[in-house]
Amino acid sequence: MITIICATNRPGNRTQIIAKSYAKILEEIKVSSELFFIEDYTNDFKIEFWKNSSLNMVCNLTLLLSKSNKVLIIVPEYNGSFPGVFKLLIDSIKPSVFKGKFIGLIGVSSGRAGNIRGMDHLVNIFNHLGCLVFPKKIPISNIESLLSQEKLVDKKTWDILKSHAIEFAKV
Percent helix, strand, coil in the chain (nearest 5)? Predict the structure, then answer.
């Protein structure tokens, strides 16, 4: 099973559209997955939530990660990197939960670089946690131009995601 994490809590984010599209592709190729949206847990965000591992968000993600050997992270660009709320979530989970997992990364941005820098920052973190990072990272740039009515409509991007999903499912 592959856990897909939408790494932002911003309401109405476009990252979730890519996450749902990837889950649909996995379903088409008969690979089970579960989606995890940080935005579903906005009530868990308190200034020191990382001290409380009993919060629903931390418990639910820890459970999902324990059932998965692969984790795909769809991560938007925030200020040249990735959302701080996602780093806070990573820091709230015991490092042993991540150890040995295969991590896939897809960056999403309104700009032209597809969050390459943010994905590189995450590679460093996940290497430190003992994860195996899938080398094929996908930067998705100019996200607004690829969507219509809250759906991914760009065939080239869909094909790239499908190719990634097939390869990631095989590792």
Answer: 50, 20, 30
